[in-house]
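Supplementary notes (optional reading)

For those who missed the lab, this is the record we used. Protein: Serotransferrin. Length: 666 residues.
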Amino acid sequence: MNILIISLLACLVVALPSESAQKVKWCVKSQNELKKCEHLATKSTELECHLKSSVTECMTSIKTGDADAITVDAEHVYLAGLKNYELRPIIAENSKAVCSYAVALVKRDTDFSINDLKGKTSCHSCYQSPGGWNIPIGRLVAQNKILWDGPDDMPLEKAVSQFFSSSCIPGISKALYPNLCQACQGDCSCSDREKYSGDGGAFQCLKSGHGQVAFMCYDEIPPSEMQSYQLLCMDGSRKSVEEYKDCYLLKEPRHAVISRKDADSEQIYKVLKQIPDSDLFSSAAFGGKDLMFSDSITDLMELPKIMDSFLYLREDYYEAMRALRAGNPPAPPQDGKIEWCTVGHAEQQKCDSLQIPHMECRRASSVEECIQKIMRKEADALAVDGGQVYIAGECGLVPVMVEQSDQQSCNDGGEASSYYVVAVVRKDSGVTWKTLKGRKSCHTGLNRNAGWKVPDSAICGQTPDCTLYKFFSKGCAPGADLQSNMCELCKGNGKAVGDEGKCEASSKEIYYGYDGAFRCLAEKTGEVAFIKHTIVGDYTDGKGPEWAKGLKSEDYELICPELPDTTVKHTEFGRCNLAKVPAHAVITREDARKDVVKVLKEAQANSDKLFKSEGERNLLFSDSTKCLQETTQPLKEFLTQKYIDMIEKTYTTGQGKPDLVKACTM
């Protein structure tokens, strides 16, 4: 017996070192960085240093798993996200970007716009620098102002030399492109040997009259001389230098730590946070500047797991980097076609079966993925609830059509539809608002209107540390963490064997959506369901699908905060509800608004199946929809400030902002 115990202890002792041997392998690209990294490794034993010859070699090394992380500039964040690397930003530097605002500066007494630059003379801070080359040239190509069909047509530098009559672009090849060095006063290098090198040099180039426009960073414009200059805006207007926040080419995103999509970003962040800031953000002792991190950093910010290079860089910067490598963007199709984003197999089937002219169907696994596809122009539209309209709005999308459930309002163009969120219980169950804590709950989905945001606001309100996870003993809220108590009651596809689709925010989960949450209650899995006020009437007394046969409306009642000790009939939603909220709306990008509205108006005029679902309920649109009404209201007006306040309150008292909101608003 003693020998057995000693043997087991010996095994444990052997196992312990390998458990702690999960080191973060940091990629460095110079001997000075290696020195600093090795010093940092003395502060955290979980850090390991790997030397490579360049950033791109480091990115390859991270992709293959030979290394884990490196800090890169915004241009390399873009490159890292491409298919040959498939890396993502996991941590951002909390510091000023190298070029916070890249601008096009001109003398006040000139009268041309950004659309009139062809044939002008230009001054640039430095070739391949953010403010002097990458941003202005990438932006001009992305906006089709510099015409370039890509590297197979000609080098980008040649296209630029054909666009400007003469320039000073320090660092470019003087032998290959002499007119791009013609305005320089030196050897056309990015060094002290060139008078017009750097942002200060670009300004002097413009001031002296050797160029008509200077591409540079706003910070380097001398404050005492600002009154003599103006900025060229991308919309064709001009503004004073003081109005730079409304008139700039692009902002350079901050440097970021990149890693593999499946990397343990929390572990990497934890290892870095073990090291004192004074060591992490200082390079002087190692013979260099900005080694591993920018020396000007004040802190590091962990990024949400949903973050990728597109979300981090934002559309305009991402498109400028793409244009720098691939040329002018393809012309948008003129056929007015749109791509509708469907969530799950059942929606895809319905979408395909409708055969709507000028509409194709593209599938995604969740509403959040659809929102990202629309942002990337990989899809154009879908209908979502108010809570998801808010998320989409934070990511730059807009509501363009609203579901209307009242036929009379469809006929006379009445006000946009809305609905009541209600808490439904079984009659005689003993559940009241006062006895709700610790019960089992049914939700339409995580972060959805009726199913989550409204009950979260009504239950937790201003109560610190209150979350629906803690308030209920267990529940089903599709989209929640599978390991959490809010997935315990979910059934997946409902089959006896396996739990495929369990807790997914799609039709794979039988308890997803309004009908799913009510089914969760009707099958006595949960004790309260948070749904829309029309659902009980729509699914009982012979009107529901197969699973709802035999359900009687009189067996369900409502509970609410105003009547804490009692229940009321399900038809009394006007006096017993949790909130009145905006109806579901179709979201899209502003540039796709016209086509989306046109296709949907034609579809509802020519099809009687748009708002009907076979086999399942509420596919693509709510089944109670009578028509779609166009809305041109700004997002805040559509949702109302009161409703927005309620949503944002749930973020402060609940689980925090959804990852997609964090990613879109950082």
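If you only remember one thing from this example: The two ends are 59 Å apart (CA to CA).
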